[in-house]
Amino acid sequence: MGNDAVVIGSGAAGSVVAWELARQGWDVTVLERGRNLRPGLGDEPSGQLDTKYGSDEIKGFRQFGFPDPVLEPYTTRTQSEAAQGVPRSAVGALGQLGAAVGGTSLHYNAKTPRFWKQDFTMLSDHGPVEGAQMADWPFGYDDLAPYYDIVERRVGVQGDRDKMPARTLEQSPRRQQFVMPPNPTGYAAQLLAEGASRMGYEAYPYPAAVNSERFDGRPACNSCGMCSGFGCPINARGDALVSWLNPAMRTGRVRVISRAFVHRIETSADGRRARAVHWTDVAGRKHRLPASTVVVAGSPINTARLLLLSRSDAHPDGLGNGSGQLGRNMMFHNFTQAAALYKEDIKPLRAQSTTLEVDDLVGLFTGPEVQALGVPYIAGGIVQVGSGLPPAGASQMIAGMLGYGQPLKQAMKAGILHARVAASQLIHQDLPQADNRVDLDPKVKDFLGLPAARITYSPHQHEKAAAIYLGARMQAMHQLAPGAVAAATLPFPILNDGITYTAHLAGTARMGTNRRTSVCAPSGRLHEVDNVYVADASTFPTFPGFNPTLTIMANALRIARDLGNGKED
Amino acid sequence: MKQDIEISRRAVLAGTVGGVAVFTAGAQGSSAVAVPLGRDRARWLTKAERRTLRAAVDRVVPGADEDTVPGAVAARCHLAIDALLGAFTVSPPRIYAGGPFSDRGGAEDNDFAEFLPLDRYETQAWRVRIEGSRGRKRFERNGKVQGYQRTYRLGLAALEQSVPGGFSQAPAPARDLAMRDDSDPRIKALVDLLVTHTLEFMYGAPEYGGNRDVVGWTTTDFEGDVQPRGWTREQVENPEPSPPLDLVDDLLGGVLGGASAGLAAPLVAMGSTETLHGVRAVAGDRFSAVQDAVARLAVPTGEAATQLAQMQRLSQRLVDEAGGPR
Ligand SMILES: Cc1cc2nc3c(=O)[nH]c(=O)nc-3n(C[C@H](O)[C@H](O)[C@H](O)COP(=O)(O)OP(=O)(O)OC[C@H]3O[C@@H](n4cnc5c(N)ncnc54)[C@H](O)[C@@H]3O)c2cc1C
Ligand code: SF4
Predict the structure, then answer these.
(1) Could you give the ipTM of this predicted complex?
(2) Could you tell me which of A154, A203, A213, A155 has the C-alpha nearest to residue A183?
(3) What DSSP state is assigned to residue A514?
(4) What is the pLDDT tens value at each position of chain A, 569 positions in all?
(5) Which residues in chain B are contacts of A58 at CB distance < 8 A?
């Protein structure tokens, strides 16, 4: 095995891989279709990098750091539309993650919970679910725990082990206290915590890769509140770029080529080994980069698209797709949103994006009430407690509902979505389905002339049942918050039969030991190609209801460490 | 001071190949020349068009004469829209404000005021969006793109003529009617964009040309961008109490339709970035598409309505079991 690698994608997964391989002495080239937004990258220590982000909503509306939907559209449709032969029902930005050096992690708000023990053995513990391709992970929590420890120390995760419920610590045991104490708790979150407590739930500080104190040369968060979706203007968050990629580049063994759109992995004639990676620059010029090891980390939709685009005589259905599973089991975290309305200004935007979590809705839930909803069990997720929406975004939601003009103006004056609201989001587990899949759109193309990714998706009956069962609990928790004058809940899996916006994606190249039912080996290596690895959440066999990035990083580190060590499957 | 966002000359020497930046350790570091934004804002519309536009944004966020608080005209949303249409008449184009700080949160300089140079990808994307695809095959693979400029030009002309005596001279109720008449596709396309743009400029950062004197924030209890000062622990955990606002009652009773079970107010639950991003991802910048997307969430039909009712019954039981709201 050579000691150089080409990594495709510089996000959470790709950056961790580059860091680990560099640490082991490999030379790494990272190809990234996005641009660098952190001047000083590769030169300065992460604490001294400049940034072009700011607390500016308009930049967000204008896709700063994201792919442009005009140049790089995705197309989408529901399962029933697919069954009726509808080629697509929407073209644009739906499902898109970021495109920048450092990936989507530049915009994330760094909530970093761990998955739970029970998540790794869903199939063997609870049996199959009709219409879903349930699976165990090829390893367990205990195998991942050492990597969680390393990642948390490196990105700097705040939290408080002493405030975590016993159940949580049993399900996600941790050897040590968090790297640093929690941020100040938002006032809106405190109010909802009381509502939660009246439901018998226990709110506690959300683990987050946000500095509550100076760490790694970067300052403490000052609770500016324009957080989720904004790059942190003061560099207070640990992310792929500051925690992994930049330090890796500073070893001199990692180079990053930005605005490199990778469209094909070339293999030997027998298809057993990758030989080169083909990419196009923004001017349309083609480049070929020889490679002895290729690591794909484009995030699930892009990873599947690239492997499908890499079809050849030896791999007629896409690279490594002998199982027919490539692109399938596309999973999205649906959200159930709830909020309480106040007559007072409760300052939901004075806090780091979400300071508290409730994990009492993770489950599993069984019993007659669940059975009555037509599913064997309900696997839920955690609740992000106590946020609001800055005003330019809020005005669009309000106008969308009430119309523009006077009603909009009055609702804005009342600050109903940015000053007088305490909102929460439940992150739903999404079950893997064969028919939820990414393939290549037969007609729509990107600006380079390559087929767009097409996503066919509908939530499973399980997600709908979970939304009824857990949505009711969300609603009650918000109605019970002291002083709330109204509460409302939007259980997305019920309200929408297609994909809703979520930045949490998994599946499409699931790992497993059986090459007939999975795309990658537990090592992340494609079953059918000796030197191509997948390192992002494409590999996840199931998608538990937690923010995924900590687990994406831990899993990528596991994959890269074994790859560097030459460990065989 | 700050390095420019794009690659430096040394990076170019280290291996930049036409629009592709190669970053390696030690390969960059020099600072680029910042092009300061002049006092003159970018312009594209004619004076007459701007007059029509001004009369239109006035209906999106009506002015002080209707409720004592300034609206979109005072915030200069029409001028900000004109600046967007003319974004490429200045350098750097007025698409992305700079960062990381404005001067509102304690910073000495206003970085937002220095717009960012675009790279080739961003330039292509924004030129197509503003100027249209104009027959260039690369950008018409999925069909022609009509740019903002044409949508505004055609739409403003049609809107002006849609009211006898001219839209810009018409009283408010007549303008309201004209903008809501979607029988003319040119007007519909215009209003679709104009509402979204007006709201962005009314309530977004003032450096884009709207939100003059931050009226969009001071009139709505938004505290603005606060970096690098941020908030102290005390300010976060124990904010000074605010008096209750009766307007909330009015809204609940009137527009939102009753607070009893709280479920007639799905709008409240849209106060999250997740919902916003979702709606924008589906709708882009077309306001009618935003309305459609929101309506799907707020007014479910068929099976979704049944399931929602089921959820509500269940939640009422849970609330009762917990002893009801206090
Ligand atoms: C607003 C927001 C808030 C979020 N908050 C959280 C949170 O609190 N907690 C959490 O856990 N997660 C959060 N996320 C999600 C998180 O950002 C993702 O889980 C994470 O970034 C995924 O990592 P990744 O490496 O798989 O993909 P990405 O970070 O998206 O990186 C993939 C990179 O690959 C590049 N790429 C893809 N295909 C190609 C190609 N063919 N050629 C070249 N380059 C390519 C892309 O441009 C991209 O930069 C949030 C996301 C958003 C948008
Ligand atoms: S709240 Fe904290 S972490 Fe979030 S953007 Fe502001 S300073 Fe950064």
Answers:
(1) 0.95
(2) A213
(3) -
(4) 459 999 999 999 999 999 999 999 999 999 999 999 999 999 999 999 999 999 999 999 999 999 999 999 999 999 999 999 999 999 999 989 999 999 999 989 899 999 999 999 999 999 999 999 999 999 999 999 999 999 999 999 999 999 999 999 999 999 999 999 999 999 999 999 999 999 999 999 999 999 999 999 999 999 999 999 899 999 999 999 999 999 999 999 999 999 999 999 999 999 999 999 999 999 999 999 999 999 999 999 999 999 999 999 999 999 999 999 999 999 999 999 999 999 999 999 999 999 999 999 999 999 999 999 999 999 999 999 999 999 999 999 999 999 999 999 999 999 999 999 999 999 999 999 999 999 999 999 999 999 999 999 999 999 999 999 999 999 999 999 999 998 999 999 999 899 887 899 999 999 999 999 999 999 999 999 999 999 999 999 999 999 999 999 999 999 999 999 999 77
(5) 97, 200-201, 204-205, 208
The atom of ligand 2 lying closest to the CA of B230 is 7
Q: State how far the alpha carbon of A565 is from the alpha carbons of A99, A515, A560, A562, B273, in Å.
A: 30, 23, 8, 5, 42
Domains and CATH numbers, chain A: 1-72+95-156+238-333+432-444+502-569 (3.50.50.60), 184-218+335-427+458-498 (3.30.410)
CB spacing of A258 vs B196 below 8 angstroms: no
Q: Report CA(B318)–ligand 2 centroid distance (Å).
A: 35
| Min Cα separation B98/chain A (Å) | 6
A137 to chain B nearest CA, in Å? 28
Task: Give A506's contacts (C-beta < 8 A, 6+ positions apart).
Answer: A300, A331, A430, A537, A538, A540, A543, A548
B222 in A contact zone (CB under 8 Å): yes
For the full predicted model, state whether its pTM sits above 0.90.
yes
**B263 vs A contacts (CB less than 8 Å):** 475, 487-489
For helices B273-283 and A391-402, give the axis angle rounded to 10 degrees.
Answer: 60
Residue with tokens 């697919």: A82
Q: Is the peptide bond before B100 cis (omega within 30 degrees of 0)?
A: yes
Name the closest ligand to CA A8.
Answer: 1
